[in-house]
């Protein structure tokens, strides 16, 4: 005896709920991470050349230009969407370039990713600022390093901030970019977050990160 199979109508898939203003799936983005130009024009020029050659989408700069005039000149001339925080030597950064955003304890969105810049002494605001943001699309930018992560100074001691490490580990962003301690520049992945000490003067190496894959490539500058 044969049996006829009934065709079962498939139910339409339920649409995923997406937060307002955020794409359902993050597009690929390439981020060039730098810090501590210290008034070295050749570093700034080489970074711009690298950005063009590698076709990056964003430059993240963790500060320390050493002079307001130098910062204004370098940032004013860039052709790339740039997010920057002030370093310990930066009294103020004023830029006449719509592509550049100076993050003074604030968050900016670009291409479905969120760039959160926090200044020294304001780390307690991190949780509040990061609330409601998908950590896989979050890039935290500070000038100081977190404690015991790429923060060993010339004197052999840790120069990072314990409070900053505790908060970043709790938030778990895709990337944390910082600088300040030139001699510990580098990249390390810890608990799902890429920690990038992007200081350039010591080794003259710059990292480009591709999100959402967290793929890293390092280049000479």
Q: How much helix, percentage-wise, in residues?
A: 10-25%
Give the count of helical stretches: 4
> In percent terms, what proportion of residues is strand?
25-35%
- Counting helices, strands and paired strands, the structural category is alpha/beta
- Oligomeric state: single chain
CATH 2nd-level architecture? 4-Layer Sandwich
Overall tally of domains: 1
User: CATH-wise, what's the superfamily?
Assistant: Metallo-dependent phosphatases
User: In whole angstroms, how far apart are the ends?
Assistant: 78 Å
DSSP E strands, number = 12
Write down the overall geometry: globular
CATH class: Alpha Beta
Briefly characterize the structure.
Helix content is 18%, strand content 26%. It is an alpha/beta fold and 221 residues long. The chain has one domain (29-220): Metallo-dependent phosphatases (Purple Acid Phosphatase, chain A, domain 2, 4-Layer Sandwich).
